[in-house]
Amino acid sequence: MGALWVGLFLAVALAPLGFVFVGPTPAGRDFWTELSVALGFVGLSTMGLQFAVTARFRRLANPYGIDVVIRFHRQIALFAGALVLAHPAILFAADPGRLALLDFTSAPWRARFGLTSVLALAALTVLAVWRQRLGVRYESWRVTHGILAVLAVAFALAHIELVGYYVSQPWKRGLWVAMSAAMVALLAYTRVVKPLRLRRRPYRVAEVRPERGASTTLVLEPVGHDGMRFSPGQFAWLTLADSPFALEEHPFSFSSSAGHPERLEMTIKDLGDFTSRVRQLPIGRRAYLEGPHGAFTIDRYDGPGYVFIGGGVGITPLMSMLRTLADRRDTRHHELIYQARTADDLTFREEIDALAASGQEGEAPALDLEVVYVLTRPPTGWTGESGRITTELLRRHVVDDWPAHKYFVCGPQAMMDSVERELLAGGVPLHHVYTEEFALG
Fold first, then answer.
1. Strand (E) positions, 323-440?
2. What is the pLDDT of residue 203?
């Protein structure tokens, strides 16, 4: 299925080349002009496809995981923008006299629309790449990002329509109208249809529970429905507002067991902005969840046992997996290697210790779990592991058929990159290592 989606993406992205290379072409158009037009069309169609990539269609994202899809969106959107910007750059280089079209006051409307589209695209790219350096809040950026994307595509469509050279034939116009209508339909689905569906499935904040590591567990109960079934390790987009049409939403992993869809828990670390307000949420606050999403789950990958490696609040999806395994009375041996700065930063430490102890004593819920805490700033007298997670550390604790295990790694990006390198250097196959970026917003 994954290969099918890639093939379909390429087919749609390259389809507009038919506007340039199929059928009669305008007289007097040189190679560079035709090349610039071809690049512009492919760039625009690829930009339009981003509405589908970011619409969170589960069937599209499932083969890869939505974190991979979002990373793909970030990279391919930059590539599409470069193609679009190459269109006027080549035209101006081939004929410097065309620079007069940059005079907004005297240029024809087709040029004005084209210039406006390029400016919107440039602003969109700058904000997407340097948002944090510019100090733009995520919520403001998200609204601006959507508006600029719509403007860039809409003005580009108007530019092509007014130029008219490549959409004059009936079949080309039909294809162009269909592609334009698809973009509008995707936007309507994302901004209208999906919120209307969410409106019928609200949640309420049932509990706000402080945790170690400056984190807070938000407990959500469904209102008038059975809740959300998910696989352990997945996440959902959370909206805390009276209406699902609110623009502020954030992705958070479930930390609760997948066996309890009627009482969902999300554990959120205070990182400033939105997350700093979670602890003050009133009981009864209306909420909406869009999901579940993600391929980072034990339900997709079977094995003799799992090795969970977490850092900081990356323990959240791993805790969902551990709680689910305990509820399922899983009898396999599992390892948890949890890295934090200090002992006080070990979120869920008491429950993790209880899970490990219950497996040893045969009490419910039993789980055969070995726990290794790794502190980067250990206190005086600390007898556990310290520093970073290395191949030597892994070999000390994962001693049974090391490469055969399935490894789930979640935490800060630098930690995940380091652990993945260590695992691969130790002989673990790449397809046995599963990671999830913990900052999609």
1. 334-340, 369-375, 385-386, 406-411, 433-437
2. 97
Q: Alpha helix locations (H) across 62-190?
A: 66-94, 109-134, 138-163, 170-188
Asked whether the beta carbons of 39 and 87 are under 8 A apart, the reply is yes
Which CATH number characterizes residue 35's domain?
1.20.120
d(CA 389, CA 345): 17
Q: Two tokens at 136?
A: 């733009």
pLDDT value for 346? 93
Q: Are 269 and 255 in contact (CB under 8 A)?
A: no
Residue type, 330: D
CB atoms within 10 A of CB 403: 12
3-state SS of the chain: helix, strand, coil percent to 5?
55, 15, 30
- Residues 287-325 have pLDDT tens digits of 999 989 888 999 988 888 899 999 988 999 999 999 999
Q: Which of 85, 71, 95 is nearest to 42 (CA)?
A: 85
For residue 243, which phi and psi values (nearest 5 degrees)?
Answer: -135, 140
Determine the structural domain holding residue 245 and report its residue range: 203-293
| Coil vs helix vs strand at 369 | strand
How far is the C-alpha of 240 from the C-alpha of 242, rounded, in Å?
7
Report yes or no: 206 and 287 within 8 Å, Cβ to Cβ: no
State the Cα–Cα distance between residues 415 and 397, nearest whole angstrom: 18
In order of 318, 361, 367, the CA distances from 180 in angstroms are 42, 63, 54
Coil, strand, or helix at residue 411? strand
- Identify the domain boundary among 161, 177, 198: 198
Same domain, 280 and 326: no
In whole angstroms, how far apart are CA 56 and each of 42, 68, 308?
23, 12, 27
* Radius of gyration of the chain from its Cα atoms, rounded to whole angstroms: 26
Contact between 267 and 209 (Cβ < 8 Å): no
Q: What are the mean pLDDT values of the chain's consecutive 10-residue runs (441 residues total)?
A: 70 72 66 85 86 77 72 86 91 89 89 92 90 82 86 88 79 77 82 90 95 93 94 93 86 94 93 81 95 89 90 93 94 93 92 80 68 92 88 81 86 88 87 76 48
- What type of residue sits at position 335? E
